């Protein structure tokens, strides 16, 4: 079978075709234990001479970064201005160097307050902290540390802290003027994540208050410095928002990149990626390949395919090593991406848009861009948030292209036509304009910002989406009729979880099943506790059968954990049963932390319902009542909110089953609307779980079908629906 993706004529990869062999040869495992000695040296064990040598090496590395030539000018500008916008090509050294410059120039210190650097993604925060700890020759967690959800390596000694934007938002809850920091660096600002956008408004306000208090003679209150960093060129907009802040442009180093488009649209992007990878591998000179894919599923499938087909390469050919990269990947595997490829091997890195701007991978010469990304979006048709496959924007496409020209000239293969490229949006729509705002609104209210309609947004979300968020929080019981945070809402804001999850967790007290609910939430917080090697799918699915609970995935997870505890986490047992030992361990750490949060609100985290497991599912419904679907006479399931046909994901314990109703964790749209994390429920449980949502259930009980179209009659709705009459009411939110 011969397959080929046709790129434009001058494409070197077009000259030959890559032939798929029909016979399978055994996949030879590549042994490459060579560590990246250059950067992974354990500084603790170095002799003095080695220490000095390594320090010099690090400094020499720093000095050759494009940003270093502008060091003095940057420091001068940071000294003179309270807010600075820094724009610069990915890889120029913004994220790793600017925090060090700030400390070296005495603009931040342990006494004055340190530097917080936000990242939209936890992988990036962890990775960057490790890198900067190495560059400063200090132990991670001392001078340089990171804080991400459920993992904190910072200490009172920490001066440079990398943290996710979500964690900085949480810190505002306990330190409302963020006094522990002298400088806040909001990095990757162009990504416009929901949380970064919220931080823009909050930090701007905090800066103003601190300046006022400082001017009033509050010597103990230092003015706050703000640095906004971004890789794309919308600097004026950021500057305007931050009172015409000074803009610094860091010139990057970018070699020419040839850009190729496909001649025809590609029906199957995964197949097109696979073929392109091998076309490049067979025909093009050395250099690693970076493939941008929309999500973990696609990355895992393609990793398996590349490994399978690369085993068929002729012995004299260069080897091909597939390295996946996505947020949920265990750190040990992430490292593979950064380590140099073993001898006579080309690396192909399969990544989500993590590698677009936040992480720099050395050695990339070829980029394959499938043109898609998975974006969080609110689907008004079905009334719930879901992950949707979406064409990327032009600016994302250029960022992806740029990754091929970091160290030398490169080539970018776009798996879409030039016409399709012209149709792309210029920029990605900010998350705040497209996703569910319930969590954001809860955080704003918890930090004392009541008037969420008037908040200082860089891009104002639509009033309808804010109203919807208020409705959802009202249905969850987090806010009262007046829009004020309820006691439950205050408790919900304490947990580092989405409002739906924190509601379920807190309600578990009433249902007497906190032990089970906390365990399940923790297990859901990690990627997957099951381990499915691509060459042993059948055995893995067979092994999984013994854990399956007839009521679905939530209780199946619990079964796994119970068995895991019985064998005391035995590693051999995990291997035999295809259980991901590492992920269970992470989940148990998460569990410990959630238990500590429970203690903070005086909640008993040990209540258990024993064998009465219905209570657990009823409890999940108190948060997930909108993520429910009911069986139709023809055997399909229709969502309660929005009457959308949904299919149970084949990986679910409920796949192929017919039950009265289902509750699910998430809805993913690929070719169909799939629901994942599914359990069986009874429709009679719905009004009890969310009386405010299903408030007219009683009167409709005679005609059960109609229950499925809840008529939401919120008292606050009439108050806050946009209309002239009610303008005055807005000020209370
Ligand atoms: O933020 P920006 O994209 O401008 O660059 P950076 O993240 O500060 O990275 C600057 C350089 O440091 C990269 O080009 C890499 O060569 C290097 N680096 C690294 O070797 N390992 C890391 N974990 C991070 C950066
Ligand atoms: Mg950066």
UniProtKB/TrEMBL annotation:
<dbReference type="GO" id="GO:0003725">
    <property type="term" value="F:double-stranded RNA binding"/>
</dbReference>
<keyword id="KW-0547">Nucleotide-binding</keyword>
<dbReference type="GO" id="GO:0016787">
    <property type="term" value="F:hydrolase activity"/>
</dbReference>
<keyword id="KW-0067">ATP-binding</keyword>
<feature type="domain" description="Helicase C-terminal">
    <location>
        <begin position="276"/>
        <end position="448"/>
    </location>
</feature>
<dbReference type="GO" id="GO:0005730">
    <property type="term" value="C:nucleolus"/>
</dbReference>
<dbReference type="GO" id="GO:0000228">
    <property type="term" value="C:nuclear chromosome"/>
</dbReference>
<feature type="domain" description="Helicase ATP-binding">
    <location>
        <begin position="75"/>
        <end position="251"/>
    </location>
</feature>
<feature type="region of interest" description="Disordered">
    <location>
        <begin position="1"/>
        <end position="36"/>
    </location>
</feature>
<feature type="compositionally biased region" description="Basic and acidic residues">
    <location>
        <begin position="18"/>
        <end position="28"/>
    </location>
</feature>
<dbReference type="GO" id="GO:0003724">
    <property type="term" value="F:RNA helicase activity"/>
</dbReference>
<dbReference type="GO" id="GO:0005524">
    <property type="term" value="F:ATP binding"/>
</dbReference>
<keyword id="KW-0347">Helicase</keyword>
<dbReference type="GO" id="GO:0006338">
    <property type="term" value="P:chromatin remodeling"/>
</dbReference>
<protein>
    <recommendedName>
        <fullName>RNA helicase</fullName>
        <ecNumber>3.6.4.13</ecNumber>
    </recommendedName>
</protein>
<dbReference type="GO" id="GO:0045943">
    <property type="term" value="P:positive regulation of transcription by RNA polymerase I"/>
</dbReference>
<keyword id="KW-0378">Hydrolase</keyword>
